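Supplementary Methods S3. Input chains for the assembly prediction are listed below.
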Amino acid sequence: MTAGEVAKSQDNMIPRRPKEGNLEKSWEVFRQNSLSLAGLAMFIAFFFVAVMGLILTSGSDPIFDPALVRLQEKLKPPLSSPRLDLLGPGQTPGLGIYLFGTDNLGRDVFARMLQGAWVSLTVGFVAVGISVVIGIIMGGMAGYFGRVHIRVADVASAIICLLGVVLIATGPMALGAGSVIAGLLLLFWTWKGRKEKKPSGLFGLLNRETVSVDTTVMRLVDIMLCFPSFFLILTVVALLPASIYNIMVVIGLTSWMGTARFVRAEFLSLREQDFVTAARALGVGNLRIIFRHMLPNALAPVMVSATIGIATAILTEAGLSFLGFGVPPPHATWGNILSDGKNFIFDAPWLTFIPGVAILVVVLSFNLFGEGLRDALNPRLKERN
Amino acid sequence: MISFLGRSLIQKTVTLFFVSVVSFLIIHLAPGEPSQVDPMNPKFTPEMVERFKKAFHLDEPLHVQYLYFYRDLFAGNTVSWKDGRSVLAKIWDRFLNSLPLFVVGTLITWTLSFPVGIRSALFRGGLYDKTTTFISYLLISIPGFFFAYVLIIFVVDTFGVPVIGMETFGLRDASWLRMLMDRVWHLLLPSILGATGGIAVLSRYVRSQMLEVEAQDYVRTARAKGLPPEQVHYRHALRNALLPFVTMFGLVLPGLIGGSVIIESIFSWPGMGRMAYEAILARDYPVILTVNFISAVLVLGGTLISDVLYLIVDPRIRL
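Predicted structure tokens for the full assembly:
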């Protein structure tokens, strides 16, 4: 370092932004992995196709009509042109040819794939969104408030409130509402006594500590992990009325355990770090510490597991469709195009191969992108890969 | 050790209790009733429904039903609502069918993953490593039933052997060799399909374990003192890299009952997964709940076994 540079650096002693932010650093790492880059490109392309699919196939007079039945043109192979003399007005396919052929009802497979892209994407994103939100709440509670113990009063008021909700749902409204209010009152009444050293009598009993929050949440995770996941999803979906929303919610509700564990582990180590202590010393509230200071630092593993989770959700939806419990007919998804096509696998193999390869490519791109993200966000792991 | 065993046994029993409650609630609070199973059946009169409800305590409140059900389960005399057969006998039959699939699938997984994983760790970044990495992602991402159809078309077209079902119908008086080959062909495809996901995940895991151990100081020391590479890799590195896999034997256990619903459906294989699927369709609650209970026991037992194995294999761990 020359004398001039030293003087210059002394001039700028005020702290500055680092030259290279975390994001740029991650991007540097990510860029070197060509497979992940390909995954990202496919990810963006899929997103684009899905949005285009939604625009082009919905509305009263869509450019590509996925529901238009042309029985005279059934099981046409891909790239075949329609027999215009057999088609009525408005029945010609959007591109002038059947790019992906037609199915057993003469519906344009290309239009159905376009519509299915959007549906598969929503199933994946909504299901993972639900599981990430639950996972962050559960994992955050276990990680941040883990040492807090649940008191007898909390359990009691929770039970009374729950009873009230059940009562409201089943009939006696007034009794149910009263029960909910009684539960909340019990909670507020015992809340004040928390700070006292040695409460006695009924108050003492109500304030007795039972298990910690951490134990409760982690046992809940254990319980959920005991169910064979696909079997559980299948059971619930089969018992509930068939609808696309039920599938998203059920997949979401049964796949939050991994996220919860990641978030808990991150929170346990973040909680002990200096910047959290500093924030607490400044009098920052718990919620602000959690969401403003800790959560952004804990998001890396969540993002990775969410990306891979979307891939899994799309596969699960396809599997459910295959067994006949998938998204019901007015919506086309790649899963149900594929499972409809399996009956014609020898006459019309494209009905199986086009959606099959499409699912494969999309799921593969999500997986590759997720793995690349893992390396990029956590360079320490790079050594092991 | 004893106190650890005692503590985890208590903990697992409590977990099991909650699992049984939750699964019971899920089944019984879902809309629809088992008395609606077959309204088209002329024998299914209102009197039948009444008798049915009486026999299976469906008139009682939920918690009483719960007690009745698990009392019957532990006494071993739950019966299926569909055909009146004992649930445990039914499960045992199907279990015996699923067992060969499970055994062959697990063998394929474990014998393939280790050589592949170790080789790609030793030649990290090479062509072999890159290819296997890509292939394992491919195997994770492929929808199982799509892959199954591709494989079926390929095998049937190329070798001309039947693969659907457990054996070819009407082969009674063929020679024993022919029968054996028939069984092998029928077993092969579903086992390979069951193993694909496992191979992909396990070989990646072997690779990362191996890479981690190869970076340790004692491996460098072994190399520095001039040992031949084979000895370094297989005696010093591999033995230590194997540690976590010993515990995975316990985690394989739940696969015994899981079976794959999808694969067994495609191949018309009368196994556990298929039975569970049929039970769900028929709302045969005792079968669903029993399968669920047994699989929860296997999951909990598997984690316990893997913890104990870890204790035995790795003396550094003290619980």
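The mean pLDDT of chain A is 80. Strands of chain A lie at 149-151, 209-212.
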